[in-house]
TrEMBL record:
Known partners and oligomeric status: Monomer.
CDD domains: beta-trefoil_IL1B
Protein name: Interleukin-1
Primary site of residence: cytoplasm
Classification via Pfam families: IL1, IL1_propep
Signal peptide limits: none
Subcellular locations according to the entry: Cytoplasm, Cytosol; Lysosome; Secreted, Extracellular exosome
Superkingdom classification of source: Eukaryota
Any single Gene Ontology cellular-component annotation: extracellular space
Keywords carried by this UniProt record: Cytokine, Cytoplasm, Inflammatory response, Lysosome, Mitogen, Pyrogen, Secreted
GO molecular function terms attached to this record: cytokine activity; interleukin-1 receptor binding
Length: 269
């Protein structure tokens, strides 16, 4: 039957003169010489760390219990906290290193798709848009039977992530597609300036990549005149335009309505 020492007996003398029960006898015996002794400054307790066989485990545990009990009974001006153990536990346990991991998050879409609408489009010179080749859009006057050649715009509407195109700002993000085709206008850099081209794509979805901003134009409405303009989101200050001359490609300009036409009328949703 194992004998468990009474803590009051262990505390009756200082740790420098403590008497310990041996693991295999019931009589008091003098504390054996230890390999390493350290005193934590400013705490008033002694912590003994020893290296040896498993038979010394009981003695080590008893010393630690006495040390903690003494610390708890010391008069202090504040409640005992875990941090109070740090001064001598650091000598017992190896330090633990921690790795700081930064938070990650999913970025909101650049533009959130809402719906699509179809419109007839005329520039203010009453020229229609015509698809002259699979990737070439031109503007010209159409009359009579040839009026059936005009194309309608399929305008995809988006909500912007930032306040740049928020409701009430007059800047609505849109993508300009050709109804009946998977063709959308895009503004890209060619040489030293941007150009307008048609690309086959399906962007009736959230635009999460900055690269796809080439398909986005800000629709700038003028309610008083009933007209609108389309400014490139990728190249601010550049607008979709037509030439003053008929049967010329639809392009893009940074000098709207000077040597070109950048103002349009939409109808026939």
């Amino acid at each position: 039957m194992a004998f468990v020492p009474d803590l009051d007996t262990l505390e009756s003398s200082s740790l420098n003169e403590e008497m310990l029960y041996g693991p295999s006898c019931l009589c008091l015996q003098k504390k054996p010489r230890l390999e390493l002794e350290g005193t934590s400054p400013g705490v008033g307790i002694q912590v003994t760390v020893t290296k040896g066989p498993l038979s010394r485990t009981f003695r080590q545990a008893a010393i630690l219990v006495v040390a903690v009990t003494k610390l708890l009974k010391q008069p202090t001006r504040k409640d005992f906290a875990d941090s109070d153990l740090g001064s001598f536990l650091d000598d017992i346990f190896e330090p633990v290193s921690f790795q700081c991991i930064k938070d990650s998050y999913t970025r909101a879409p650049v533009f959130r798709y809402t719906r699509s609408q179809s419109f007839d489009i005329l520039d203010i010179d009453h020229k229609c848009f015509v698809l002259e080749s699979p990737t070439q859009l031109v503007a010209l006057h159409l009359q009579g039977p040839s009026a059936g050649q005009k194309v309608k715009l399929n305008i995809a509407l988006y909500r912007p992530r930032s306040s740049q195109g928020a409701p009430g700002s007059g800047r609505v993000p849109v993508a300009l597609g050709i109804k009946g085709y998977q063709l959308y206008m895009s503004c890209v850099m060619s040489g030293t300036k941007p150009i307008l081209q048609l690309e086959e794509a399906d962007i009736r979805r959230d635009i999460e990549s900055v690269e796809l901003t080439r398909f986005i134009f800000y629709r700038l409405d003028s309610p008083a005149e009933g007209t609108t303009r389309f400014e490139s989101a990728a190249f601010p200050g550049w607008f979709v335009c037509t030439s003053l001359q008929p049967r010329q490609p639809v392009g893009i300009t940074n000098t709207p309505d000077q040597v070109n036409i950048a103002t349009y009328e939409l109808s026939g949703r």
